[in-house]
Amino acid sequence: MAITYKGFNTQGKKFSNAYTETGFTIAKQDLINHFNIRKGEKLQLPDFGSVIWDMIYEPLNDATIEIIRQDIQDVIAYDPRIEADNIVVRQYENGLLIELNLLFIPDQAMENLLINFNTETSTATVETV
Questions:
Q1: Whole-structure pTM value
Q2: I want to staple 98 with a disulfide (CB 3.0 to 4.6 A). Which of 20, 60, 115, 124 is the partner?
């Protein structure tokens, strides 16, 4: 029997639209929500969140890239629905771009994602490449 993941999402929705999301869509939104929380920011869960926001103004050298890659792998490992590989970290004028291949395990669906950590808006957003 196939497992169906259901979630609730109001981001980018109008009141006339349904808020229920399923499958890969909700897994990607959960991933972005996780990246938008700084490590130590969530009450009673000090290990939850991402260190990328703390690393964003550091020089992008091999050590910093490795810390960011490890953090991405830790965040993705937190969710049993997804796996990632081919993680590429790039810098641009407003923050960091993370490109990765994301596998949604229940459907074996894979997408190439670009996650934008934007310092002007202080948000992480995702788009499919």
A1: 0.82
A2: 115
